[in-house]
Design brief:
single chain; 156 residues; alpha/beta; 7-stranded mixed beta sheet; globular
């Protein structure tokens, strides 16, 4: 395995994502820029991740802390086993709608990170499979939704 220069420019953290049956369903990889003022290469990050998790090697959820890097990753073509966590403030911004719908149409799983302060654009709503919500912000219960409401996004 060759060394990737991008790995010297980021700090990585990882944790398992465990489903209701207590099985590991994916790995959550959190990516922090080591120097926030330095631009990072999205393609280089995808190459480094693909060395450890090639397509077919299991699901990986990328939790990217840099808005610029996340935007560049959304425009790139990550492999289908990479799930991207999109912060709610980016998901509601119509400037990102085209990139979100393109990722979804290529088969990437998208996770909505946080509770949006306003409605998601209609075209991006079906693109998100799960919502990642802190327990303190959770308002849902296991009760069925109100009449006329269909929940399509499960929460983690």
């Amino acid at each position: 395995m060759q060394t990737q220069p991008i790995l010297a420019q980021v700090v990585l953290g990882y944790s398992p994502m465990i489903d209701r049956e207590r099985a590991i369903s994916a790995t959550r990889l959190t990516v922090f820029p080591a120097r926030p003022d330095m631009p990072l290469d999205a393609a280089a990050l995808l190459d480094a991740v693909a060395q450890v998790w090639p397509e077919g090697a299991g699901k990986v959820s990328l939790n990217v802390v840099s808005e610029t890097l996340l935007h560049d990753l959304m425009l790139a073509k990550p492999s289908a086993n990479l799930m991207l966590e999109v912060p709610a403030f980016m998901a509601v911004d119509i400037a990102h709608s085209e990139a979100i719908t393109a990722l979804y149409s290529r088969g990437n799983t998208l996770l909505l990170k946080g509770r949006p302060r306003s409605e998601l654009p209609r075209e991006v709503l079906p693109c998100f499979k799960h919502s990642i919500i802190d327990l303190d912000d959770e308002r849902r219960s296991d009760a069925p939704p109100p009449p006329g409401i269909t929940r399509q996004i499960t929460h983690i």
